[in-house]
Amino acid sequence: MKSPAKKQTAEPLFLNRELSWIEFNFRVLEQARDASIPPLERLKFLAITASNADEFFMVRVGGLTMLQRQGHERPDPAGLTPSEQLTKIAERMRELVTQQHRCLQKEIEPALRKGGIRRLTLAELSAPQLRHVESFFDDHIFPVISPVAVSLEDEFPLLLNLGLTLYVRLEPEEGSTESRHAIIAVPRNLARFLTLPGDGGYSYILLEEVIRAYAGRLFPGVTVTECAAFRITRNADMSVREDQAGDLLEQMREVLTERQTSDCVRLEIEKRASREARAFLQKALQVATAGIYSIAGPLDLAAFFRLAGLAGFEPLKNTPWHPQAVPEVSPLESMFDVIKRGNLLLLHPYESYDPMLRLLQEAADDPNVLAIKQVLYRVSDNSAVIAALTRAAERGKHVTALVELKARFDEARNIDWAETLARAGAQVIYGVKGFKTHAKICLIVRREPDGVVRYMHFGTGNYNEKTARLYSDISFFTMAEDYGADASAFFNTLTGYSQMVKYRAIHAAPQGIRPRLLEWIENEAERSRQGEAAAIDVKLNSLTDPELITALYQASQAGVTIRLNVRGICALRPGVKGLSENIQVTSIVDRFLEHARIIRFHNGGDPQLFISSADWMPRNLDRRIELLVPIADRSSREKLNRMLETYFADTRQAWRLLPDGSHERLQPDAHHPAGAQEFFQRQAEARAASARQQMSTFEPQRPAERNP
Prior knowledge:
The protein has 708 residues and is α/β, with parallel strands linked by helices. Helices cover 36% and strands 20% of the residues. The protein contains 18 helices and 27 strands. Residues 5-9 and 242-246 have low confidence and may be disordered.
């Protein structure tokens, strides 16, 4: 492929993926700062930024730190070495941390106080509250915690990743000038938020504040001169060596153990901590100066998720948006009959996820179902999906479950589910050697009067009924023969030793998606060169693949109109004269996490439409097993087209990506007063209400007219 035309500036062709991710987190933080959003919802967005940052440091910063320590200084596509990236990351993350805590203390907590929710310090407690806290410490905390003396001369105790700990400095021994040191692990099995008695509302104090207040009782006869909270983040960017022989399940268990002892890549410590405390912990934990973050407020803001769900404060939350029943799916009708009538495409969480669960549950109980085959990447606790598959296996159906053990941070849960399914009699595959299986596919084989029939579900999201209420994703149900043949071939490839085949309809990574995308992008470019209308519209979570970005640059230079809706990371520079002036990139951040992937090529007026499990990243296209599914039936195509246009029309919750990697908020358009998500919810509600009205309208059965 040709390189795109060089710009006249020295700017690199690509934006850095890590800095792009941080900018996404700033957009999430803006939701926390939005005074039009109820305060507990704003607190939830703030907690999301903290949870995102934890994972970012564990994986991305952890990986870059390893490269730096190993002396790897090869620049990324944006021209930055690992060391340069770490420097820029630290600079931008410090600004994010500052804004997070300013948002909490200056914006969100004052709004919560007005609504009756108060975080109190020890100095703010009333006499009854103080007695309650003291009693709680004596009865519940003191028997649990154990202070540990530490020094730089001895091996430092193992600290839990992301766990809260208190550093304690003690007065020197008699005759010495050297301070003594200790640590106290804050128990994870005690509530972080200690409820306080009061006259109304909800008042609480943080657990670490209570331990700090009475820390002296743990060191009788010794004066505590300092007590400061800190938290460490360990490198989690490690994986199994699949080139080595051995049981994958056991290897994954070893990885989980290794993460508990890996290097510290971030030390968060209270701003009130002394210079001596910071120096001691830095040396003890061997963390780089760039990895030390002074926090002007509570540590671990992700824990505030629990507070955001506090019962009894509904005025401080959004009016609920409930998933709506789908008119095409009658509760009195089998899902098999629904799919027989025609393909069905749903947009969650506005349209209910129940049809997918019903399909699995009916398949488990239907004596005519012969087999169920499904890929499981992330599933929920108490999973209805696992329950249905287990029941199906126990009833003698041939159940094949590919449980991806390498799904990061879900490894332990997936190990448990894999063992549960195996005990029930299912055939369990622990992924595919050398790749992560990220495809979302379920195949059900059923014996019917006319022969054996295959029913399929393809999706953009995981088979997780909990996240299906929080993430915006697409489900597609079909029994079309081409899809059925492809689904069978796909599973045979995963469970056997066969090579990826050329499918009739679908496309699969790692071999089959990138070439097709490049071909279709070039087709649009060639049409434009010939003077025809040409356009590409794509909705993704992330866009970082240099080869695809280069192809989009070339298409832009050929005159193709390109609209991209990229929720998170985007390495493409839009709107650069001579390079990408025909490309616009927007990002939507709203109540639900945008997760659906939709692709449309104009194709000379006969659009090609697809849904996909894959983002446009090298990992997805080269190192994962993914699916790209064409949507060909008229009804589903029309629905996808409306979705895309609604997303691109959003001026309420959308941000525009600028050439330098920053974003600007779009100004609301009077012609489009609702954001895309609100529009989809209202549309789903209206369709469900219309269906209910039709069901409640009684039409009498009249006798047929007879000729005299």
